Amino acid sequence: MSTPQLIDPYQRIVSYLRISVTDRCDFRCYYCMSEDMTFLPKKELLTLEELDRMCSTFVDMGVTKLRITGGEPLVRKGIMTFFQSMSRHLKSGALKELTLTTNGSQLTRFAQPLYECGVRRINISIDTLNPKKFGEITRRGDFHKVMAGIDAADKAGLKIKINAVALKGTNDDELHDMVEWCGKRGFDLTWIEVMPMGDMGEADRLDQYWPLSDIRKQLNEHWTVEDIPLNTGGPATYVRVKETGGRVGFITPLTHNFCESCNRVRLTCTGQLFLCLGQEDAADLRAAMRDHEGNDALKAEINAAIARKPKGHDFDYSRQVIGGEMTRHMNHTGG
Ligand code: SAM
Ligand code: SF4
Question: Where are the alpha helices (DSSP H) in the chain?
Answer without folding.
Answer: 48-60, 79-92, 107-116, 131-138, 143-156, 175-185, 202-208, 212-222, 285-290, 296-306, 330-333
